[in-house]
Amino acid sequence: MSPSDLNPTQPTAPGSRSWRDQVWQLGAAMRPKQLAKNLLIYLAFFFTLGDNGADGFQEQLELFGRATLGFALFSIVAGATYIFNDYRDLVSDRLHPSKRLRPLAAGELSARFGLPAALVLIAGGLSASFIVDTGFGVLVALYLGITTAYNLRLKDQVILDIFAIAAGFVIRSAAGAQIIDVPISPWLYVMTSLGALFIALSKRRAELATLGEAGTSHRPALEHYSVSLLDHFASVVAPATVLAYTLYTFTADNLPSDNSMMLTIPFVLYGVLRYLFLVHNRNLGGSPEEVFLRDRPLLLTFVLWLASASLILIVAD
Description:
69% helix, Tetracycline Repressor, domain 2
């Protein structure tokens, strides 16, 4: 690899300069697979199922529409931030076994096109968020601020890096509740925070296992971590996640009074244990969205949890 290959301002290949190709690569640079994270926007809506009875279908449909609008706006802003992050990490990404294939690092997307386009998407998405709901707009702006701080500084700070990642998940949950104007149990926020920490720890562990000593050149914070330390962290966070969900099923005001939601606890427990198995035995976890989409037992567990929780919310008293 020549020094010119690592030049962030290196022009893209001639074959990828057409407007249509650049728009396509722009979409790819926004990491469509990461949309799975933004599904947390629907979490608050999901737990409103059954609240309005048989006559509340129209209201539920309206809430779903608002949640979907929030999902779209949040996805636009979040996706655009990845482009700025990739540009900042261009040199290190070209040394990474998988990140070197990202559109900017691979030279398929021109920075001259990608950066202005990302700025327009962020400005448009943020403005629309405030128009739809001021509180939702504030949360999107907060996410944007934390993401910017993470990309510029926090990603290199030990422990704070994983806290910043977890904050992004919590903001998604809060934004979903805000845009449909429903309260959400504090225990659900706690569970979301702990679950996000668990995933972030697994991601760091996978990076260490994959990159080894070279990982510190890609991400300086890895110098302060070790596989054993991350395993110790996970041994605290993983059971706390299950406990927080358990307490949520018993204490949340919007859940059935007969505590039937406790029947979904085994799915959450299995999901956490399965994820630990994949991280430790198969060295996965570096790309959480791919783990969830490709591992059939984990995907089936989520589908079963979704089905059973939906049935309980709609049928149980």
